[in-house]
Amino acid sequence: MVVSMKDVEHVALLARLELTEAEKHLYAEQLNAIIDYMGKLQELNTDDIPPTAHVLPIHNVLRKDQPRPSIDRNEALQNAPRQEKGLFKVPKIV
Amino acid sequence: MELYEKTAHDLHALLNKKEISAEELTKSVYERVEQVEDKIQAFVMTIEKDQALKKARAVDELLSRGERLQPLAGIPLALKDNMCTKGVATTCSSKILKNFVPPYDATVTEKMAAANTILVGKVNMDEFAMGSSTESSAFLTTKNPWDLNCVPGGSSGGSAAAVAADEVVFALGSDTGGSIRQPAAFCEVVGLKPTYGLVSRYGLIAYASSLDQIGPITKDVTDCALVLNAIAGHDPKDSTSVKIDIPDYREYLTGEIKGMKIGIPREYFGEGLEAGVKEAVLTAVRELEKLGAEVDEVSMPHTEYALPAYYLIASAEASSNLARYDGVRYGYRAENAADIITMFKKSRSEGFGPEVKRRIMLGTYALSSGYYDAYYLKALKVRTLVKQDFDQVFEKYDLLVAPTSPTVAFKCGEKGDDPLAMYLMDVCTIPVNLAGIPAISLPCGFSHGLPVGLQIMGKAFEEGSILRAAYAYEQSAGITSLKPKLTGEVA
Q: Is the pTM of this model over 0.95?
């Protein structure tokens, strides 16, 4: 078992997921099977190989720093589960 | 032949000759949807018929004023439900976006509107495009028109099934690891994944941003070229969209492929390939040879490493992209959470389905401290090796030909409990996404009564060469006039 139950709980916290005990066991089992399969990559020596995060030779795409229209506040809020006074409303933070 | 059965280019000719009206065509398509949608279940939602007819009448108005129509004007289509449509719900087939109504259009949505097409509805998909069967949709199970007991493939299963069942003339799908090509193969339609950067991703709800690409799903290769003409091109709203001159892709539909050099990568014909699929694909290869193509076997030694690299990269990008679903600005919010962290956790846990959570977990793990180098960075390096395989063969060859999927469509529920078995279904399509190159799937016969897809891969931004070969094959092999029976019995 590469991925322990503790790992599953830690990763779930990082990912802001709340898992049931049954889900924790299931994901531990499945992640182990998947990660085990991913281990295949270690067969390759990649010491001198640069990583490819992106296939296109495009870097730092900039546009002119000029104001332009954007969606208005009401439109931006139309999908908000809760709103008040033109703001997104959420439960207590501190 | 009913109007709803025809291709876009045939319908365009009939419209321009005023032999039919756009209104008649739209009515025909809506009647077809009413007849068969219960069986196929392709649509997450359909646009009100009156609204569609109004748009169709506007096209007829153009005709009556003597204007020549654009190639796709008046043609009914469907959009995969991960493409934003202003004022029309866009769900990604996920509970977390069930009530999401985008305040803006995706660039492809705008382009389809500018082309005067008629939107019939938004079609089903695997939740957030994560899957190969459309079974992970939170809402409904789309069926394969060739056998209603089978999956249509995925993740653009709704797009492919709707086109195959003649519920729309064409559809747009998105392809991150095969999500246009594999369902096109399973449903006997044509699906093209363009070069990364050719079609704007603005307004496409992101799954894995370095891999996602929008493309056409059509009834034949000519329609594929027409739709690509309409959606390709630079978009300042997508910083990964490329500034190049876009040709008229119809110019490549000559039937002439004499002297084209085609490589057959041996690694795509290995273990796990269904005998009937292999036979259909090799028969198609002989057809291309007869047409004058020069065919050789080639080797791409890193092919077997593409799949594990892909699932690490795609999941890592997904875990980051999907962090935005927190119940604050849009989407599902869990009730009665005492504090904000609990609200995030509950909203995400209740809103995402099991496959999405699994990939978020896998991606978060691969990116987390202590594992980043061993998994994510390793996968990015292997991506380089996979891309180099393609660069090397494309020095000598114009195209590569292989199966789209190692098997034909499988039964609904067959791979439900085993995520790894489902991932392995993508082995033939994934390398293309890692390399960012274009590839098409087109029908090339049947195995066990179910459709087989022929995959043709090309160099970056050389969609033209792919379409040239695909068209030549389609014309010479004679695209099948068979239509699916929409029953549970295989032909």
A: yes
